[in-house]
Amino acid sequence: MKIGIDKIGFYTPHLYVDMNKLAVERNVEPEKFTIGIGQEKMAIPPITQDSVTLAANAALEILDDNDKEQIDFVIFGTESGIDHSKSAGVYVHELLDINPYARSIEVKQACYGATAAIQMAKGHIALHPTSKVLVLGSDIARYGLNTGGEATQGAGAVAMLISADPKVMVLEDKTAYLTKDIMDFWRPVYSDKAFVDGKFSNEQYIAFFQQVWERYKKQTGLGLSDFEAICYHLPYTKMGLKALRTVLDETTEEVQERLTTNYKVSTTYNRNVGNIYTGSLYLSLLSLLELKEDLPEGSRIGLYSYGSGAVGELFSGILQPNYREHLYVERHKQLFDDRTEVTVAEYEEIFQHTLPTDGSNIELDIGKDPAAICVSGITEHMRQYVNKHR
């Protein structure tokens, strides 16, 4: 049975800050942000957006009534969950009016969460071939103002419909994965900002890639020449290139050029959104599929997922006939075109304007947020959500 990605979409908030201007305000050479880490713009979530609404908005645009009826599993990968008990998936399930006879859960392992969700979805569909699974990767990356990680913040979500006989990409079964207990990045339950050992995390990202790549080659007999492109989890867009370069000497100059060129295309959306943790790898995949117009049907695309702490996995997918007909290219172009730039001072104000954590009630003005689904406030410790399309 062929199982994979039938639909894929994403959402990012309508506000962003220009990385050149942020660099100037931080007394940093702009090239350090735009070239050194490879970021141009950073998405800024208003107080009316959280991981739930970002995911719901991403899924809203790709699901039709038939999908909502056939979905019997919602798996929400995130490290920006809003509740220690209730899953973010349950909120999205209700906001989108999905078939009530479904499972809805949340999974967590840093940026690896959405990949874990995809593998769970494949197993579910293997047992229930007529089912569809909604996989969500949604996060808000926060390190704090004037911190070393500030330039690698971002916000957004990717939604994927996983099914049998998918229209976009069949996911191949052979995969290589690795787990090690390390402290390269973490966020204790008492903190709304992450802690990171940047140098160590970069080293581990590359080391994990090298190890799962070697294991993948042994399990599959495949090499670099068998891939049209390899997409990477992108905490910042220069990171994946560092990993790719460690294995390029295994192949010809022609293949090196192809993989490097396609890698650059795959980073375009991420360069203009920032780090979205669980969704970053799949935003990179979406960038490649939508912007590389001559990407051949039948191409094998490698996917490297890394979640600090740490779990890494390398797997692959095959692009299906007429896959481009099932993408939402114009819709995503419009999403980018409609964004509004904010000044650094405005960004700082938005960053510090957060929901109360002391149990206070609050009512928010959602009129300024163009998103269909928003956080409208907190009442009696319960977040209130609004779907404006209802």
UniProtKB/TrEMBL annotation:
Residue positions of the active site: E79, C111, H233
Gene3D superfamilies, A to Z: 3.40.47.10
GO molecular function, one term: hydroxymethylglutaryl-CoA synthase activity
Hydroxymethylglutaryl-coenzyme A synthase C-terminal domain mapped to chain residues: 179-247, 256-352
Listed SUPFAM superfamilies: Thiolase-like (SSF53901)
EC class (word): transferase
Keyword rRNA-binding part of the UniProt annotation: no
Residue intervals of the Hydroxymethylglutaryl-coenzyme A synthase N-terminal domain: 2-165
Binding-site residues for (3S)-3-hydroxy-3-methylglutaryl-CoA, renumbered to this chain: Y143, K242, N275
Residues annotated as binding substrate: G148
A biological-process GO annotation: acetyl-CoA metabolic process
EC number: 2.3.3.10
Keywords: Acyltransferase, Transferase
Pfam families xrefs: HMG_CoA_synt_C, HMG_CoA_synt_N
Record-stated family: Belongs to the thiolase-like superfamily. HMG-CoA synthase family.
UniProt-recorded name of the protein: Hydroxymethylglutaryl-CoA synthase
